Amino acid sequence: MVGLLFSCRERSGHRIIVGVSDMLKNPATKYRPAPAVDLRDRQWPARTLSAPPIWCSVDLRDGNQALAVPMNVAQKLELFQTLVNCGFKEIEVGFPSASNTEFAFNRRLIEENRIPDDVTIQVLVQAREDLIERTIESLVGAKRVVIHMYNSTSPAQRRVVFGKSREEIKAIAIQGARWIQERLHRLQGTDVRLQYSPESFSATELDFALEISEAVMSVWQPTPQRKMILNLPCTVEVATPNVYADQIEWMCRNIRNRDCLIVSLHTHNDRCTGVAATELGLLAGADRVEGTLFGNGERTGNLDVIAVALNLYMLGIHPNLDFSNLGQIREVYERCTGLTVPPRQPYAGELVFTAFSGSHQDAIKKGLAEWETGTRSHWDVPYLTLDPADIGREYREVIRVNSQSGKGGVAYLLETEFGVELPKDLQREFGPIANDQVDALGREVRGEELKAMFWKEYVQRTAPWSLIHFHADGVDDLFECRASMIRSGNELALRGRGNGPIAAFVHALAEAGVPRFEVTQFKQHSLSEGEAASAIAYIQIRTAEGTTRWGAGVNTNIELASIQAVVSALNRL
């Protein structure tokens, strides 16, 4: 491969290459595999999820700090209320020591009594005395809080950022825990829970993560009645999700006084496996999950809480969060953050309940029809893991049509949007016709465009035959009809007999010299209600040579609609 130098700059006399296009032929010369966890009797692979975790939204802190333009107080207030409405009982509202805006937001929540009695606000703080002091000030008067202290623990952080040994890093955590403990008396009347995160846990040696966590526990002295939250974050994904699960199980099995802890997960999405890491971490023994709506966060993002919650829901486990109006939640999120939910975002994206493939569309249509009969007790619709209606989506979103679509999708749109119920054989005939026209357009088509294609191909066919007048009288099985038609500019008067109006009209056409054909299929139904209600008729004819064609007619008179359908089929021969 040819390397392309994107840019470079000078720093302290050294030239720094910012970007080169080459990938290494042997990446093992630069990168190394993640170390495995020595856990040969791991238990998590045999477990199944059966209950939701404790949820904590970090949208207002972790999500907010990842925005190019952080939210202002008004936007944070709106998103906070949305999170409360979703059912979050723990919400990390910010980093109050980071800026005046963050501090002011905390105070406004508390002083304006905006926090429901059953909701706990969480605040993040580093293990630094001045920041801890400011954080305590921000919480005075709150009813329920979690003070979340962290310091980074991985070898790279110890070496590159702090230049400190393991013992020195542990001393930072111990001192920070003491500073918080010494100030708790200033939060009289506040229900305070303490949380510690060995940040970069996923890249930290397990024995050191255990050592530093137990050191903080020794200061805070949690009990089974007054548990401490131990957050074990996958701050940066450096391994496959099973390795993270092994780390969580190892910690749960080896840390002392496990019954005094709420073990929490906080996964990021660097390897695009944040959801998997969280689900496996729950199997491994964790009790709590931190994440954001739609996965907003640093780099590739945080865990998408909605995805994990609805993954549980589609397995029959209520997540204790309410996403029944997911569209409105998405609207608030996009307005407050300035971000856009991708069209393929699980559950919430514009296209996630959409099928373009013809075979998928047909299966979905049949599955939905079966579900509507009420014969099944549990949801089992092909390609749809849950009922879109449960989260505020609509069935009309399920199937859309482009050049990859088939007869099932075409039929579904015509039926759901316009009440046009095409017979199966007509679906097979019109499907390729519509597909060719959509293919020529090179884009997705709307329902109105699809209806126009059908009307042009079937309903509006007036050449070479055009019906001017039709009248039939009959008793029992004998009908006589009189009709006038135009063919190639010439008007013809027709008369015929048969056992019904359609049969009489077919006989009249034969008497006028039209090559003989027979009606092989006939279906009709109403299109709308009211005095001006229209009916649509579908008729298939077959010639003596075996050629078949469908026709369709629409009229307020159902008899005339069927005669127009015969003319339509005749014109399409």
Q: If you had to describe this structure to a student in words, what would you say it looks like?
A:
The chain has 573 residues and is α/β, with parallel strands linked by helices. The chain folds into three domains: 294 residues, TIM Barrel (Alpha-Beta Barrel), CATH 3.20.20; 99 residues, no CATH class; 107 residues, Alpha-isopropylmalate synthase LeuA, regulatory domain (Double Stranded RNA Binding Domain, 2-Layer Sandwich), CATH 3.30.160. It is built from 17 helices and 16 strands. The longest helix has 18 residues. It is elongated and about 105 Å long.
**Name given to the CATH architecture of the largest domain:** Alpha-Beta Barrel
* Largest sheet entry: 8 strands, parallel, barrel
Shape: elongated
Low-confidence stretches: 1-7
Strand content: 15-25%
- Helix proportion: 25-40%
**CATH T-level fold name of the largest domain:** TIM Barrel
How many distinct helices? 17
As for the number of domains, it is 3
- Overall pLDDT metric: 92
Question: What is the number of beta strands?
Answer: 16
Order of strands in the sheet with most strands: 3-4-5-6-7-8-9-10
Assembly annotation: single chain
Class based on secondary structure composition and strand pairing: alpha/beta
End-to-end separation in angstroms reads 59 Å
Give the CATH H-level superfamily of the largest domain: Aldolase class I
Roughly how many Å is the radius of gyration? 34 Å
Defining key terms:
elongated; alpha/beta; Double Stranded RNA Binding Domain; TIM Barrel; 573 residues
